[in-house]
Design brief:
The protein is an alpha/beta fold. It is 37% helix and 20% strand. α6 (164-175) crosses α8 and α8 (225-235) crosses α12 (298-310).
Length: 491
C-alpha cells in the first residue's frame, strides 16, 4: 500500500496585508507552497482573490506575544518577516520594530522554523546611516540573534504601482513643473521593480545557498533622484521638469514638502526623506551569482507602474498598512448624529456599488469643492487631506483608504462604514446602510449616518460650523448615489 504524498511545505508570511506581503502570497501559491498568513487584522484579506485557496491559512496576531508566536510558527519550515512599524508607530517606529523583531526571533528559536527571510534596506554600513536605514539593519541583527539562520534581502527604492516611493515620485513630477529641491536629489540610488523584489524573495526560499546570507538586490540602473524624477516625467508624458538644488533644505523641510504635495503623510515622509541622504546601491553581486535574473530597468518599472495605476488594477497599496481603528465606544459624552435616508429604485447590490465609488478621482457625488477645501485645510495642519485617493476606482476592501477616510466596516450589499482620519477635534464616522423596501420590489432604502463625538469646546464649535453644510454635502451625496444606482440598473 503506497503512503500518501507529503504535503507541500508550509511557509509563514508576516505582513500579508501589506504592500509586499500581499503580492508575495499568490507567488508562493503559484510555486506550490502552502501559506500561513500572520496578520493583525484578518478582514483586510477578505477580498483578496487568493484568500479562499484551501492552501491558505490566516492567523491573527500583533507579534506582541512570543508564546503565541511559537504556536503559530510550529509546522512552518520557513518564515518571511515583512513587518515594519513606520506607518503605525510614528516617531517611535525604531523601538517598536526592535521589540517585534526580538519577539519573533525568540519565538522562532522555540519553534520548528528552519530559516527566516527578511526584506531590509540597502545602505553603506561605513557611512552615517539615517535612523530609518539603521533601524532596518538592526532588525536584521535582532532576527539573527537567537541562532535561526536569516536570509536578508536588501533593496533601495521599490518602484511599483501603490508603493510609497512611486507615489512620492509620481506626485512630485505631476504637480511641480519647477522643483526647488534639497541636496539629496544628487544622491545615487539603485531602484528596483516590485516584480523583481518578489522574484528574489521567492528564489531565495528555493535556493538553500542563500541561507544565512545578506543579499543585495537592485535593478540595472544607478541613478540620482533627479534623474529618476526626469524619467518619471518622461513616462508620464509631461514637459521637462526644472529641478533647482538648494543645499539649505533640511530633511524636516523636505519631508514637510513631500507631505504637502504627495499622498504620503509627514509621519512616513520624514524617515523616508532622512534616508534619501544615503547612497543606496548594490556593491555585492551575490544575488546574480546565486540566482541569475534580468531585472527591469528603472524606466520600464516606472512605465509598468503608471500603466497599472491608470488601469485601476493596483493589487496592494502602501496606505493599507497599519492598524485599523476599532469601533469607538460611543457611550458616555455627547455624540452628534446626522441621519438621512432615500429610497432608490435599484437592488441593494447596485446601491452598494454606487456607494463604493466615493472618493478618489470620482469625488463625493456633490459639493466636491467643499470636500476639496476641507482636504486643503486638513493638509495644512498635517492631515492626509484628499491626497491618498483610492486604490481602485470602484472596488473597496476592508482597511483601505478613501481620501481622508478609512474603511472600518464592510458587508457587501448591506453596509459600508468609514472612519475619519483627517485632523479633527473629535471622532467621526460615516456609515451607509442598504435595506430592501418592504412591499416594493427592486427598491432599496439607503440610510446615511454621520456620527461625531466632540473633544472639548473646539469639537462643539467644529460640529456647529459644519452642520449647515450637511444639507448640500450629504443631501447631494444621497441624490448622486441614487442617480448612479438607477442609471446602472437601467443600462
Amino acid at each position: 500500500m503506497s503512503s500518501p504524498p507529503n504535503p507541500a511545505p508550509l511557509i509563514l508570511v508576516t505582513g500579508a496585508t501589506g504592500y509586499v506581503g500581499g503580492r508575495l502570497v499568490p507567488m508562493l501559491l503559484d510555486r506550490g507552497f502552502r501559506v500561513r498568513c500572520l496578520v493583525r487584522e484578518p478582514r483586510k484579506l477578505d477580498q483578496r482573490s487568493w484568500r479562499k485557496d484551501e492552501r491558505v491559512e490566516v492567523v491573527q496576531s500583533d507579534l506582541s506575544d512570543p508564546d503565541r508566536l511559537t504556536d503559530v510558527l510550529n509546522g512552518c519550515s520557513a518564515a518571511y518577516y515583512l513587518v515594519h512599524s513606520m506607518v503605525a508607530s510614528g516617531p517611535n517606529y525604531a523601538q517598536r520594530d526592535a521589540l517585534l523583531a526580538k519577539n519573533f526571533a525568540t519565538a522562532a528559536a522555540a519553534s520548528s522554523v528552519e530559516r527566516i527571510l527578511y526584506l531590509g534596506a540597502l545602505g553603506d554600513e561605513n557611512s552615517d546611516l539615517s535612523r530609518h536605514l539603521k533601524s532596518r539593519k538592526e532588525t536584521a541583527e535582532i532576527l539573527s540573534s537567537t541562532g535561526i539562520p536569516v536570509t536578508t534581502l536588501q533593496a533601495a527604492i521599490i518602484i511599483g504601482s501603490g508603493s510609497a516611493s512611486f507615489e512620492i515620485l509620481r506626485y512630485l513630477v505631476e504637480r511641480l513643473p519647477i522643483m526647488v529641491t534639497p541636496r539629496w536629489v544628487q544622491t545615487e540610488c539603485q531602484p528596483i521593480a516590485i516584480i523583481d523584489v518578489l522574484y528574489w524573495l521567492v528564489e531565495s526560499l528555493a535556493n538553500e545557498q542563500t541561507t544565512g546570507k545578506t543579499i543585495q538586490i537592485g535593478g540595472p540602473d544607478v541613478l540620482s533622484y533627479e534623474q529618476l524624477m526626469k524619467l518619471a516625467a518622461e513616462e508620464l508624458g509631461l514637459w521637462k521638469r526644472i529641478i533647482i538644488g538648494i543645499p539649505l533644505l533640511t530633511p524636516r523641510l523636505s519631508s514637510a514638502w513631500i507631505s504637502l504635495v504627495t499622498p504620503v503623510t509627514y509621519r512616513l515622509a520624514r524617515p523616508l526623506a532622512d534616508g534619501l541622504r544615503n547612497r543606496v546601491v548594490v556593491t555585492n553581486p551575490i544575488a546574480q551569482l546565486l540566482m541569475p535574473h534580468k531585472p527591469l530597468t528603472a524606466q520600464i518599472a516606472i512605465r509598468r507602474a503608471i500603466a497599472i495605476t491608470r488601469q485601476g488594477q493596483v493589487p496592494t497599496r502602501w496606505s493599507v498598512a497599519g492598524p485599523v481603528p476599532g469601533d469607538p465606544d460611543w457611550a458616555g459624552g455627547k455624540v452628534f448624529i446626522d441621519q438621512r435616508s432615500i429610497d432608490i429604485d435599484a437592488m441593494p447590490e447596485e446601491v452598494f456599488a454606487a456607494v463604493c465609488k466615493v472618493g478618489g478621482g470620482h469625488g463625493w457625488y456633490a459639493g466636491d469643492i467643499l470636500w476639496q477645501i476641507r482636504g486643503w485645510m486638513d493638509q495644512m495642519i498635517g492631515g492626509p487631506g484628499l491626497r491618498r485617493g483610492r486604490r481602485d476606482p470602484e472596488a473597496v476592501e476592508f482597511g483601505e483608504t478613501l481620501d481622508f477616510w478609512r474603511v472600518v466596516g464592510l458587508e457587501r450589499g448591506k453596509q459600508l462604514l468609514l472612519h475619519a482620519e483627517m485632523k479633527l477635534p473629535g471622532i467621526a464616522q460615516l456609515g451607509f446602510e442598504m435595506n430592501p423596501v418592504a412591499d416594493a420590489a427592486s427598491k432599496t432604502r439607503l440610510t446615511m449616518t454621520a456620527r461625531f463625538r466632540p473633544r472639548g469646546l473646539a469639537g462643539l464649535l467644529y460640529w456647529y460650523a459644519v452642520v449647515p453644510l450637511h444639507f448640500f454635502v450629504f443631501g447631494g451625496m444621497l441624490k448622486g448615489i441614487k442617480r448612479s444606482a438607477e442609471e446602472k440598473k437601467s443600462s
